[in-house]
Amino acid sequence: MTDTAMYRVVFLGSTGGAVLSRLVSHEFVRELTHEVVADRPCGFLQIAEQSGMATAMLPANNGHEFSMALHRRYDGMSNLIFLSFYTRLLTNPLLDGHKGRLFNCHPSVLPSFKGMHGFDDTYASSSLFMGCSLHQIDAGIDTGPCVLQAALPIDRRLPKAQLRHGVFLAQYYSALQFLLWLKQGRLVIDATGHASVRDLQFRTSPFSPNLDADFFAQCGIPNELI
């Protein structure tokens, strides 16, 4: 098993970076960060630069090219965890080279509504729940094991944009909890690449496992979400 308290984080992205902008307001997230990487000029990199974090742009026309560039840059660096907000499919040899250490936060309750339009596909369905899933990245499209999920009721009397904002907040809380586990050394990745987390709780809550109550209460998160 690997002591994840030794890890540093590489954030991957390609868009505006709304979740990242919330995450980097926390000092411990900035301290955990090794680098913020994108395949094009975008808000994701601008947010990191404005926060004084190391950045890199690795130009690529598709997910495979980006994966190859990442593999060349980080080959042999086993002390890294990758948290991806990148919108294209990551491929080998990156996946095998960092097996079990790449994670994504997808805007649906997996295994339902995989792919690029997780929230829109959820909203267009008859589902009564929406949410997000923080999961390990494998060679499939949003098929890796989940480590944290949120399920929120869909109140169709509300504007779609308001519902999407609720999922955005769930993604932010999920990513923040994941990074807190990492800081605390509670995330364990075994020799096969399987990830698990120590000392979890499973009370009735939108989040499974539960968010850390003391930390999130200090952040002003409503009690009904913790």
From TrEMBL:
<protein>
    <recommendedName>
        <fullName>phosphoribosylglycinamide formyltransferase 1</fullName>
        <ecNumber>2.1.2.2</ecNumber>
    </recommendedName>
</protein>
<dbReference type="InterPro" id="IPR002376">
    <property type="entry name" value="Formyl_transf_N"/>
</dbReference>
<dbReference type="GO" id="GO:0006189">
    <property type="term" value="P:'de novo' IMP biosynthetic process"/>
</dbReference>
<dbReference type="Pfam" id="PF00551">
    <property type="entry name" value="Formyl_trans_N"/>
</dbReference>
<keyword id="KW-0808">Transferase</keyword>
<feature type="domain" description="Formyl transferase N-terminal">
    <location>
        <begin position="47"/>
        <end position="162"/>
    </location>
</feature>
<dbReference type="GO" id="GO:0004644">
    <property type="term" value="F:phosphoribosylglycinamide formyltransferase activity"/>
</dbReference>
<dbReference type="GO" id="GO:0005829">
    <property type="term" value="C:cytosol"/>
</dbReference>
<keyword id="KW-0658">Purine biosynthesis</keyword>
<dbReference type="InterPro" id="IPR036477">
    <property type="entry name" value="Formyl_transf_N_sf"/>
</dbReference>
<comment type="pathway">
    <text>Purine metabolism; IMP biosynthesis via de novo pathway; N(2)-formyl-N(1)-(5-phospho-D-ribosyl)glycinamide from N(1)-(5-phospho-D-ribosyl)glycinamide (10-formyl THF route): step 1/1.</text>
</comment>
